[in-house]
Amino acid sequence: MSEFDLIKRYFTRATPNALLGVGDDAALLQVSSGNVLAVSTDMLVSGTHFFPDADPFMLGHKALAVNLSDMAAMGAVPRWATLAIALPEADEAWLERFSAGFFSLAQQYGVELVGGDTTRGPLNLCVTIFGEVPAQQALRRDGAQAGDEVWVSGMIGDAALALAHLQRRIDLSEAEFAACAPALHQPQPRVALGVALRDIAHSAIDISDGLLADLGHILDASQVGARLDFPVLPFSPVLRGYIGQPLGRECVLSGGDDYELCFTAPATRHAEISAIGARLGLPLTCIGKIVAGQGCIVHDASGDPIHVEAVGYDHFR
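Below the sequence we write its predicted structure tokens.
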């Protein structure tokens, strides 16, 4: 199979919302009136971001999901994507499953694949996503203000716990792993939440490298500090069974791969945010406050600060 046959068979779909999609030297995209373009790129490398024997359907899902999560954090509606993929070989069964996972999620969010590149090499996936958001309503990292409440969506820590099991750093039961694994392999991007938070949230970020690391980016950009209450952090019944262990606490605070949203908003909007969570069927939890100063302190049930060794994942540390 040639490179062009591969692209045509597995990665070419109709693109009615693009002026020109796959098949030319570049795609042609028209942004809706009054909106600006939000653009994000994420790379997934075999052996670093996923195991070489990962299920290709789930991998196709995750390759797009992590980019959709970036759109959610900006309050943007995803529209188009490109995919650059390096493959050790043109394995048709693998490609069939991978593209099925990718396009299943793309269809769910109305995303069109409009271009990309293929080459032979170690398995490497790189997606660039394009979305739209009204210029003055984009969620950013630099808007947090002292007095804001800090919120997170969904549950955090399950993906890190599942990964720890696969890395043999902990031994989960079959039922426990089955409960945690979807968070790692098929994260659910919170696009609807991001859109709903326009004009409400002062700042937002998606949790990819760990709660403390990613909240830290908001704090640095906004030049503020934060105080979090560990007992109110939202985690699953499975993780609750390990929260007394150092690894369990690490999963919640710095494990990463959650792809939930962390955002700050005025305390006066608390009821509105709770109502958004109820409407979306998505747990939203207020976990602390933004304060003047620098850094983030996490308090235990007694009000004492918790010492945290690692705050999140860093590729070069």
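The first strand starts at residue 35 and ends at 45.
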